[in-house]
Prior knowledge:
mainly alpha, two-stranded antiparallel sheet, 13 helices, 2 strands
Amino acid sequence: MNATSSTLGTDVAAAGLRVRRISSEDPWRWLASGWRDLWCAPAPALTVGGVFWLLSIALLATLINQDALALLLPLAGGFFLLGPFLAIGLYELGRRLERGEPLSIAAVFRPRIAAPTQVGLLAALLLFAHFVWIRIALLLFALFFGVHRELPPLETFVHDLFFTAEGWILLIVGTAVGGLFAVITYAGTVIALPLLFDRDVDAFTAIALSIRAVRENPGPMLLWAWLIVMLTAFGMVTGFLGLILVFPLLGLATWRAYRSLVVEA
């Protein structure tokens, strides 16, 4: 066992928690449970989905207004950072469904967070990571298309990206770097936020436990990441309208994932 593994184990053990081993069937079960939960409380769940849709449209409108649609792809990563925080109300909904407590739209906008300060710390860490990724994406663009060139209109950018040698190199390097960022972010946060919502632990312990969940269940957690990406992509290509349904589905399913993976030590 290396030093990193030992540290992760100590952090998780100190919190009195452990990670369960799961099968490749579990991510599908989480989705099925999330779907059932959504229709047990459609009004609050779809209200949260509607808010996320409005934020998505506002971002798109801003990019169009600033003639910066070329930034849509790197900024899309923000959905995967912002989404879990907006889903906190859905974790509240999932917990209330488990306990048989009253359900309401107001409840999802006033969630009872066990570790609010640590949630804020995790948010700051993720926002910093996203800022670094955007800066790297812009630096890569400058490296392959010229330091002094401004971001082109979307149609020009698409042509340059897919039909020039520089564009193909940028696409390959950018995908590799972005994929690395995505893997690190996913491993460290996939269950960290619902854990901080549910239990009063520190952010770094939550990150350590999230990494352990991925490390001990690589196949199922890779499948879960793929399902998240595919469903989110579907939500986007439907003019973002699909996010009204996809977002609460994934939020409620993530709560189920956390409850399935994390148990008392």
